Amino acid sequence: MEARVTAHARYTVADIDKRLYGSFLEHLGRAVYTGIYEPGHPTADESGMRQDVLELVRALDTPVCRYPGGNFVSAYNWEDGIGPKSERPTRLDLAWRTSESNQVGIHEFAGWAKAAGTEMMLAVNLGSRGLDDARNFVEYVNHPGGSYWSDLRRKNGQADPWNVKLWCLGNEMDGPWQVGHKTAVEYGHLANETAKALRAFDDSLELVVCGSSHSDMPTYPQWEATVLEETYDQVDYISLHMYFENYEKKTSEFLALPEKLDRYIGTVGGVIDYVKAKKRSKKNVRISFDEWNVWYHERRSDAKRMKEWDWPHAPVLLEDIYNFEDVLQVGCILNTFIRRSDVVRIACIAQLVNVIAPIMTAPGGAAWRQTIYFPFQFASNYGRGTALRLDVDCARYDADIAAGVSYLDIAGVHDGDAGTLTFFAINRHGEEAMTIDLSVEGFGKVRSVEHTLIKHDDLEARNTKDAPDTVAPMKVEGATISSNGVQVTVPPYSYSMIRITL
User: Fold this and answer.
1) Spatial separation of the C-alpha atoms in residues 119 and 21, rounded to whole Å
2) CA distance 350 to 337
3) What is the CATH number of the domain that holds 356?
4) Residue 409's domain spans which residues?
5) Does the pLDDT of residue 420 top 90, yes or no?
6) Cβ(461)–Cβ(417) below 8 Å
7) Among residues 333, 351, 382, which one ends one of the domains?
8) Chain mean position to CA 450
């Protein structure tokens, strides 16, 4: 099979916001406890944070981390996580039917985020709580001193404010499963009034309002229109969430799901434009896609277990063990975000450690990379710069979710400072190798090309504690420089990163 791809220096999408490669940590399962935090672990520092996990997180270079939820935040009292640990209360978490010890709160997370080299993206509770609690939290986190909440932070050991700029106004408030679920009008009004109060404190804050939890919600896309009409003048982003499933084990259908993601983004982008025009506004609101990942391996069995247990603390929950097929899917998702980076400015893989995550840990033991770690790492490390608008000519197939799905899923990024072009390419054909002719025009002479491949003959191949390198990237030879670009051949069902030095 042959594919022809043309990249031209003048045809671009947008300069990519580095926060497109954000992450997410929720007080859920073992994401925090025995994930990032495990006092007594051989690698734990004086604050109890696992240094082996921090090393893997730093290698991802994820610029922002959303915290503390997620569904958890909609019944969370942030004050429970401050002050002496011995005095912090244990609470019942209604979202996941577990117990929360509050041994990790804003101080501990802020210290971890600094060590990890990531900025905090904090969520406020607009489910069981509201405006006053949100503004108090922001004051505690961001005010230098001389007020009740800022002085309490100083008393608790943090003299300087953390100056967090990015704040989520609740989580998935369109979902009936959410504690404090609201209609679009109810939520829109509360979010707008909360945003006004936060802006009265600091007009430079970046505020994220809740969009639809997924594109199959019965209220989608009217939810976005109603909420934005209520909040447009006060917010900067609207959040979207989507998880990808393959219960039927049909790889071609599974790998076509990013077409649905693309439509989701396009539709909400259109709603944003509609509300902007209706309000005669010059302001731009963008998308924060702050939950996304493959999630289905353990989902149904975990839902049954949750109904039976008696409020455990940090149980094994939502610990999908990813396979090679998921590498291809995550690559396609990230490519979609790159191609839509003009409207999707922030995105957060859900989640970071243990819970549907690229990093896994054993309590008291090792930490290792799941298969999906690698496509995320490559995009985060090398997908920064200007997204290119590629012309792609390749054979296509029809799927249930969309007709005319290209066998080649590809995105390209130009890093002018580094003098590189990076292409992320997924061959969605299960039987045929693909020869890709990459024509690059207007960038200058191609000096060298490097091809990194992720490939396994077994789509179900997984990385585990005992076999952590079953699926891993490899450098391969064979890419050649042609008169107007490069040519590379990729095997069936494979992920490739093609790096061109100019």
Assistant:
1) 12
2) 15
3) 3.20.20.80
4) 2-9+388-501
5) yes
6) no
7) 382
8) 27
> pLDDT digit string (tens) for 227-268?
999 999 999 999 999 999 999 999 999 999 999 999 999 999
pLDDT in tens, 40-85: 999 999 999 999 999 999 999 999 999 999 999 999 999 999 999 9
Q: Are residues 176 and 121 in the same domain?
A: yes
Same domain assignment for residues 52 and 27:
yes
Name the one residue in this structure whose structure tokens are 């289905």: 296
Q: Which of 494, 56, 62, 468 is nearest to 255 (CA)?
A: 494
Residue 324 CA: distances (Å) to CA of 200, 243, 434: 49, 17, 19
Whole-number Å distance between alpha carbons of 13 and 339: 7
Same domain, 471 and 346: no
Residue that is last in its domain, among 350, 382, 414: 382
Percent of the chain at pLDDT exceeding 70: 100
pLDDT at 483 over 90: no
259: left (phi over 0), alpha (psi -120 to 50) or beta: alpha
SS3 assignment for 375-425: HHHHHHHHCCCEEECCEEECCEECCCCCCCEECEEEEEEEECCCCEEEEEE
**Distance (Å, rounded) from C-alpha 221 to C-alpha 226?**
9
CATH code where residue 408 lies = 2.60.40.1180
CA distance 80 to 107: 12
Number of domain units in the chain = 2
Task: Confirm whether 172 is a catalytic residue.
Answer: yes
- Is residue 291 part of the annotated active site? The answer reads yes
Residues 134 and 262 in one domain: yes
Cα-Cα end-to-end distance for the chain: 27
The residue annotated as part of the active site, out of 172, 230, 259, 325, is 172
Residue 409 pLDDT exceeds 90? yes
Label the pairing between strands 367-369 and 359-361.
Answer: antiparallel
What's the rounded mean pLDDT across residues 360-378?
Answer: 98
Give the strand order in the sheet containing 391-393.
391-393, 2-8, 434-441, 485-490, 480-482
Residue 5 burial by Cβ neighbours in a 10 Å radius (0-12, 13-18, 19+): buried
Q: Supply the mean pLDDT for the chain.
A: 97
Same-domain status, 80 and 102 = yes
